[in-house]
Amino acid sequence: MFEGILLTIATAATPLLIAAVGELVVERSGVLNLGVEGMMVMGAVTGFGVALATGSPWLGVLAAIMVGALFSLLFGFLTLTLVTNQVATGLALTLLGLGLAGMMGESFVGLPGVKMDYVYIPGLSDLPMVGRLFFGQDPLFYVSIVLTGGVAYFLFKTRAGLTLRSIGDNHTSAHALGIKVIAIRYMAVMFGGACAGLAGAYLSLVYTPQWNENMTAGRGWIALALVVFASWRPWRVLAGAYLFGAVSIGQLHAQALGIGVPSQLLSSLPYLATVVVLVLISRNRRLTMVNTPASLGRPFVPDR
Amino acid sequence: MKKTILSLAAAAAVMSFGTVAAEAKVKACWIYVGPIGDFGYSYQHHQGLLHAKEKFGDELETAYLESVPEGADAERAIERFARSGCNIIFATSFGYMDPLNKVAGKFPDVKFEHATGYKREHPNVATFNSKFHEGRYIQGVIAAKESKAGVAGYIASFPIPEVVMGINSFMLGAQSVNPDFKVKVVWANTWFDAGKEADAAKALIDQGVDIITQHTDSTAPMQVATERGIKAFGQASDMIKFGPTTQLTSIVDDWGPYYIERIQEVIDGTWKQSDIWGGMKEGHVVMAPYANMSDETKKLAEETEAKIKSGSFNPFTGPVTKQDGTEWLKAGEVAQDGVLLGLNFYVKGVDDKLPQ
Amino acid sequence: MRIELIKRPERSALFAALSPFIALGLTLVAGAIMFSLLGKSPVEALYYYFIDPLREVWSLHELAIKAAPLILIAVGLSICYLSNNWNIGAEGQFVVGAIVGSILPVMFPDFQSWIVLPLMLLMGIAGGAAYAAIPAYLKVRFNTNEILTSLMLVYVAQLFLDWMVRGPWRNPAGMNFPETRTFSAAATLPEVWSASGRANWGFVFAIVAAIALWFMLSRTLKGFEVQVLGQSPRAGRFAGFSQSRMVFFAFLVSGGLAGLAGISEVSGAIGQLRPTISPGYGFAAIIVAFLGRLNPLGIIAAGLVLALSYLGGEAAQISIGVSDKVVRAFQGMLLFFVLACDTLILYRIRFVGTSAAKTVEATQNV
Fold it and tell me: Which residues in chain C are contacts of A265 at CB distance < 8 A?
C-alpha cells in the first residue's frame, strides 16, 4: 500500500514538474508565459493523436514536444518581436490552445489511447518495496528527474546558463554587453513550450491514456504557481510538485478512510499547504530577492 | 466601413434564409452544461440529439450550445434559443432550473424541458430525469457477488440527492447478497477530471477495495482498474473499450427515446406538461452487456434486472435502516419519489459522512 | 526578412485610435479564412459573431450584463498592475464578495427593507477587499509572492462556496440541491430599464467605478503615486511614498471592486448562491485590463468587446453550428490581433530585408 501511494504521488507530480521546470527556464530569461495550460493541452491532444495513428507512444511524445514548442513560438513572436503585454498574451494563448485542442481532438473522444509501458529491469524492478519505485516507473518519470537536474546544472553551472540568468535579471545591461537578448529569449520560450507539450503528452499517454476536452483541468496553472513557489530554483520545483502531489493524494486517502471531514476542506488542502510553505520559506527576504528574475514580464526593445 | 457592414448584413440575411430548410416542421434545441467531448453526461445527451435527428430526418431542425455555465449565462442562452425559433428546448442540467422557468413565462408558445429539476412554474415547462439508481442496485448485487475483499470503492462527484441515491441503492443491492458488505466513498468534487478520478481510484485500490464504481464521468477509473487487475463499472456510456477485461457492466443513459417521444408530441400538437422519471422499464436506463463475471453472478444480475424492469421490484423497499441506526422503511414499504429526489442521508453500512 | 521595432518619440495618438480597427480588419480576414476552412460561410459566420448580438435591444441588455463584472474587476486590477502588484486572484475575491454580501438574504430572509441592498453591496465590497488583503498582508509582512498566494486562494474560495451551498446555507426548501434560498425582492438588484431587458445596476456600477478610477489615476496625487511606485519604486521612495501602503491600497481597491462585481452578479443576474457563480470572470478580466491598456476608460471598451465575443460566439454556434471550440479559438485569435496592433502605438515597425539593405517602412512617421 505504501509503495502504491508513493507511485500515485509520483504520477500526479510528474506532469506538474515537467511543465514547471520548462516555465522556470522561461521566467529565468525574464519572460512570463501564462499560457502553460494552453501549450499543455495542445501537447496532450497531439501526443494522443500521433500515438494513436502510429501506435507508438514515443512518436506521440516527440510530436507533442514539437507542437508545444511551435505553439509557444506564437507567444514568442508576439511578446518578443512585437513586445505585446506578456500577461495578456499568455492568457490569450491559453484560450486559443484550449479551443484548438478541442477542435483537433473532436474525433478522439471515446477512444482508448496508447499507453506508454513501464520500465522493467529484470531483477531490480521486482525488488520488494523499492523495486517499482526506483526501477519500474514510466520512462517519462525518469525524464522528469533528469530534466530537473539538467536544468539546474545548465542554469547554475554553465556559461550559457549564466547568460540566460543575466538577461532575466537585467536585459538592458545584458544587451549592452552584446548578448542577443531576444534570440536567447526565443529559445527559452520554445524550451518552455516543449516542456509543456511533454507534460501534456504525459497526461494523455501515461497518467490517463485517453483524450477529453480540457483534460489538463488547471494543471498548467498549478505548474505556474510552483515556479513561484520554488523561488525559481529547479530542485525546489521538484520538492513543490511532490508536496502538492502528496497532499492531493493524501486527502483522497483520508476520505477513503472515512474520517468525516468535509471533502471540500480536504480538497483545498494542497492549495493552502502551498501557501503556508511559501510563507515560511519566503521570510528570508534576501534569498528570494537573489533568485527573482528582476526583468520578469518587462518588455524589451533593443535600441540601436 | 459602415457601408461594408450593411452589405455584409444584407448578404448574411439572404444566406440565412437559404439555410432554413423549408420542410423542417419543428426545431428542437439543446443546452449542455459540459462539452460534448466529455464522453459522459453531456456526450450522452448529445447522442440523444443525434438519435432524434436520425429518426426525424429533414422534419427536424436542431441546434445546441455546449459548456453553458450555470448562472447568468444560462438565462441568456435559453432566451436566445426561445427567440431564435426553437419549438422545444431541452435544458440538461439542474442549475438551469430558475432561468428556464423565468424565460418560459415570457414565451408561452415554446415548450421547455428541464432535466433533473423539480420546478414547473408554467404550463409549458416539463421536467424529466432517469432512475439511474435502478442500475446501481444491480451493480451492488454484482459487486457483492464478485468481490473477494467484501469492500467496493465508490468515486462520487458532488453530494446531491441523485448521487446519494446511487450510493444507497448500490449499498442495498450489495447487502441483499452480503449483509456485511462495505463501501468506501471518495468525493472527487468534480464531474470531470480524468487525472483526479484516476488518483481517487488508485487511492481506493491501495486501501484494499477490489471493485470500483464511479459517479463521475471520465473513463480514467476504468483504465486504472484494468492496470491494477481488478474489476469496475462504467458510467453514463458503455466503456467496454477502455476495459475489455475489466468492465462488469455500465449504466448507459439513453435519452434518445424520451427526446424522440417529446418531439413527436410537439409535431402532433399533443405535448403536455409532465414530470417523467423514467427507468429501465421505459428504456431510459440501459445496462451494458454483463461481462467479466461468473455465470452465477450474471444470472443473478439478469434476474434482478428483469424484476426491476417488470416493475415488480423497487430497489428502495424496506426494511431499510438509516446510517444512524433509525428505521427508514418498514418491511415491504417502498420509498416515495419525493423523499428520494431530496435524499440527503445514507443507509446503514456506508462508510462516509454527508455534509449537513 | 526580419522585423524591427523603432520606438516612437511619443505615443501615437493616431494609432491609439486606429489600432483597434486594424485589429478588427485583420481578425475579419483571418476569421474568414478559418471559417472557410471549416466549410462555413465566412460572411455569415462573421455577421453572427459581430453584428447579430447588437441587432436587438434585449441582446444589448445581455451584453451589459456580461460586460459589467468584467469591467468592474478589470478597472480594479488596473490599479494593481499599474502599481506592480500581480493580483491574479480576482476570481476568488469575486466569490468571497458574493458570499459575504449574501449573508443578509440567506441568513435573515425576513429582514426586508430598503437598507438591505445597500448593506449587501457594502458587505460584498468588504468581503472581496478582506480576501484580497490576505495576499497583500503576506506580501508586505513575509515577502510572499502574490501571484502564487492570490491564485491559490481562488481555489480555496471556490471550494468554500461549494461547501457553503451544500452544507450550512443549503436552501431548506430546495430538495437538498446545492443552492441557497432565492433572494427576496428587497435583496435583488433592480433592473435599469426592465421594459426592454434584464440589465441591472451592476453595469452602472461598472461605468461609475471606471470613471472614478480614471479620474483618480489621471487627476489626483494618489494616481500619480500609483504610477510612480509602479514604474520606479526607488523614485517613489524618494518622493516619500510608502510601498507597503500602496500594496494594501491596490489590493483593497481591486478586491473590493471584485467583491462588488460578485455580489452584483449574485443579487442581480442569478438571484441566489450556487456552487459556481462565475464562468471565470476574474481571469477574463485580466485580459480585459490589458486590452484596455490599463486605462479605466479603455477598459470599458475592452470589456464590451470581450462580452460581445462571448455573445457572438453563442449566436454563431446556434445559427451556423460552429462548435464552441471554434468560438474559443477565434476569441484567442481576436485577442492576439488586438494586442499585436497596440504595438503600433509606441513603435514603428520596419521590415528589414536580410540580403539587400532595402528597408520598407511599414508605417510612416506620424
Answer: 159, 163
